[in-house]
């Protein structure tokens, strides 16, 4: 029998989250952002759940080819554009839309031979200071692109640094709106946090929203708002089983470094999941975990293949606990109880994004189907 660890991708949850963001985004079209192999979920595995999106946005040309292989004929956007001139051949061949964030990308496009003019998204650095043209250089970049026969349509893009926090997006929207004034074209500004927190702002909404983390069932502004506050559902469950149990007495310690000491008699369970499965090694004692759908806590240090959990609340609930009992590291237990990935991430000092992206290749993943074909 293989190790009992497994991940499950919930197609219905992806569909639900997409519908939820569609409502929040009003009349804007939605990119489903599937970079980093769909935030660790697997592009092929999320496709059914996200195919009601208006397009797929990603970074990697191989990933774009995989989306086309799935039969997707709609828009695909390369969020960072091309990395070298020959990438443009694939853009022409697969009909990829691409971001233009620097002069070199315009040079490459000007030298590219194609029968099929491209749709490009000209990116402004409106304050994030990562990719994009400054507002001062934006218009001249637009004029250069607009003069190229290789360009069919120019849209505008920027990215918010603080859509999830107190600084907000007003300053970047003002910069973007001023610099794009009277330029014709569609706009894309917001990510998940902007959609959920700021989409009543028509300028923030733009024509296209770029949805990542919320699609996968993580709250973009946790802990200010949790998953349930935004009516989102976990798209991934990481589950395993108990493969051992120990009865401790006061003073007994658990695991490497003896990080946890029992202060009285207690039972612990040993679950088949460790940092080599992608569970964060830095998750401390107290990190939430579900056993038979009952909330308890991790105790002691996470090791490569195992972690240990306090069985006290599970025994107190009267349920039988045994070898083989269900352990849910994040996601949804069989009894329907949800443990948001955000709570585990917070305990480990990180964010849901990092945990989902870090799911290890050795973990087998199954897709739980949705309710039939969607159009
Ligand atoms: C990753 C990414 C997004 C999606 O952000 P989320 O916070 O996951 O919704 C949007 N836009 C760009 C440019 C990105 O790189």
From TrEMBL:
<keyword id="KW-0413">Isomerase</keyword>
<dbReference type="InterPro" id="IPR020622">
    <property type="entry name" value="Ala_racemase_pyridoxalP-BS"/>
</dbReference>
<comment type="function">
    <text>Catalyzes the interconversion of L-alanine and D-alanine. May also act on other amino acids.</text>
</comment>
<comment type="pathway">
    <text>Amino-acid biosynthesis; D-alanine biosynthesis; D-alanine from L-alanine: step 1/1.</text>
</comment>
<feature type="active site" description="Proton acceptor; specific for D-alanine">
    <location>
        <position position="35"/>
    </location>
</feature>
<dbReference type="InterPro" id="IPR029066">
    <property type="entry name" value="PLP-binding_barrel"/>
</dbReference>
<protein>
    <recommendedName>
        <fullName>Alanine racemase</fullName>
        <ecNumber>5.1.1.1</ecNumber>
    </recommendedName>
</protein>
<dbReference type="Pfam" id="PF00842">
    <property type="entry name" value="Ala_racemase_C"/>
</dbReference>
<feature type="domain" description="Alanine racemase C-terminal">
    <location>
        <begin position="235"/>
        <end position="368"/>
    </location>
</feature>
<keyword id="KW-0663">Pyridoxal phosphate</keyword>
<dbReference type="InterPro" id="IPR001608">
    <property type="entry name" value="Ala_racemase_N"/>
</dbReference>
<dbReference type="InterPro" id="IPR011079">
    <property type="entry name" value="Ala_racemase_C"/>
</dbReference>
<feature type="binding site">
    <location>
        <position position="130"/>
    </location>
    <ligand>
        <name>substrate</name>
    </ligand>
</feature>
<dbReference type="GO" id="GO:0008784">
    <property type="term" value="F:alanine racemase activity"/>
</dbReference>
<comment type="similarity">
    <text>Belongs to the alanine racemase family.</text>
</comment>
<dbReference type="InterPro" id="IPR009006">
    <property type="entry name" value="Ala_racemase/Decarboxylase_C"/>
</dbReference>
<dbReference type="InterPro" id="IPR000821">
    <property type="entry name" value="Ala_racemase"/>
</dbReference>
<feature type="modified residue" description="N6-(pyridoxal phosphate)lysine">
    <location>
        <position position="35"/>
    </location>
</feature>
<feature type="binding site">
    <location>
        <position position="304"/>
    </location>
    <ligand>
        <name>substrate</name>
    </ligand>
</feature>
<dbReference type="Pfam" id="PF01168">
    <property type="entry name" value="Ala_racemase_N"/>
</dbReference>
<feature type="active site" description="Proton acceptor; specific for L-alanine">
    <location>
        <position position="256"/>
    </location>
</feature>
């Amino acid at each position: 029998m293989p190790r009992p660890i497994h991940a499950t991708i919930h197609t219905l949850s992806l569909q639900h989250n997409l519908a939820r963001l569609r409502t929040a985004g009003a009349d804007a079209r939605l990119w489903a952002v599937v970079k980093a192999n769909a935030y660790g979920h697997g592009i092929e595995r999320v496709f059914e759940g996200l195919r009601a999106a208006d397009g797929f946005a990603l970074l990697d040309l191989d990933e774009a080819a995989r989306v086309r292989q799935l039969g997707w004929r709609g828009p695909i956007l390369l969020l960072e554009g091309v990395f070298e001139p020959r990438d443009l051949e694939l853009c022409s061949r697969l009909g990829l839309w691409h971001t233009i964030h620097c002069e070199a990308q315009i040079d490459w496009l000007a030298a590219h031979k194609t029968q099929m003019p491209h749709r490009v998204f000209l990116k402004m650095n409106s304050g994030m200071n990562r990719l994009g043209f400054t507002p001062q250089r934006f218009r001249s970049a637009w004029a250069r692109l607009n003069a190229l026969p290789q360009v069919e349509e120019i849209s505008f893009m920027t990215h918010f640094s603080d859509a999830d926090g107190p600084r907000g997006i007003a300053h970047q929207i003002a910069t973007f709106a001023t610099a794009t004034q009277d330029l014709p074209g569609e706009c894309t500004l917001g990510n998940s946090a902007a959609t959920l927190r700021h989409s009543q702002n028509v300028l923030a909404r733009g024509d296209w929203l770029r949805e990542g983390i919320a699609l996968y069932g993580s709250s973009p502004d946790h802990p200010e708002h949790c998953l349930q506050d935004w009516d989102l559902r976990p798209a991934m469950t990481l589950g395993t089983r108990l493969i051992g149990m120990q009865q401790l007495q006061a003073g007994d310690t658990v695991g490497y470094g003896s990080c946890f000491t029992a202060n009285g008699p207690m039972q612990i369970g040993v679950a088949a999941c460790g940092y080599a499965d992608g569970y964060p090694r830095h998750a401390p004692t107290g990190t939430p975990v579900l056993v038979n759908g009952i909330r308890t806590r991790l105790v002691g240090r996470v090791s490569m293949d195992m972690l240990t959990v306090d069985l006290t609340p599970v025994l107190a609930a009267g349920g039988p606990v045994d070898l083989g009992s269900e352990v849910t590291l994040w996601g949804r237990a069989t009894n329907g109880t949800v443990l948001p990935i955000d709570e585990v991430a917070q305990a480990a000092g990180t964010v849901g994004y990092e945990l989902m992206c870090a799911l290890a290749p050795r973990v087998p993943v199954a897709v739980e189907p949705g309710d039939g074909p969607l159009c």
